[in-house]
Amino acid sequence: MTAAALPPPFTAAVTTATVLGCLAYLAAAARLRARGDAWPYGRDTVFCAGGAVLVAGLAGPWGAAPPFTAHMLTHLCVGMAAPLLLVLGRPLTLTLRTAPVPLRRRLVALTRSRWATLPVLPPVAALLDFGGLWLLYRTPLMSASHHSPWLDAAVHLHLLIAGVLFSFGLAALDPVRHRPGPGLRAAVLLAAGAAHAVLAKTLYATGPPGTSFGAADLRLASQVMYYGGDAVELALAVVVACRWYRAEGRVLRRERRGTGAPAAATRW
Question: What is d(CA 116, CA 121) in angstroms, rounded to the nearest whole number?
């Protein structure tokens, strides 16, 4: 079974938007530094790397890889690796620091609105992301998308958006209303990682309904999904842990300033 090629207009539109987004990001970062504000160059690097991974994933430069394995490599790039890299660049924070005052006020109001923050709540974002994957691979949806280029494009778009929402909500790097605590984010990440691993293991034995991928292709694709997903989720776990560690460090420093004595123990 071979996959339908993504519609050229879709690929061109996403590629153009990604390139323009990276250029706008670099221009905003340059303006920020020009006025004397700090903005680490590492954020520029990871954001542009995320754009490059996204474009490469949609282009699908997988050579002679079997069809389902090639699909899974694209899924890994578009739905997991690229979103995390883009989020690590903190684009919302950069926008808030460089936008004109009227636009900044509108963006702040948007980030505080309930309808905008609901999709990035960790449980909701995890359901959209990993629930969507179960729907894709355990129903005839993937078979249908392989026969409809525009449905396939919609699937890829969902993978990208859901991946960004999940990484954004779990990393909690940019300012949003009612940011969840690290304990909830860690628990959601653990549950989502387990759901992803179980799905990968089911694909090792049985392909998506309505598809006819070879056994070797299924095994290789499921391994890409399992180990590749673990790598991205581990990177996200490091981000969550580092944020947790820094938050606890700030608490301890405030306690020391308030009491004039060292804190008795670290709070976790």
Answer: 10
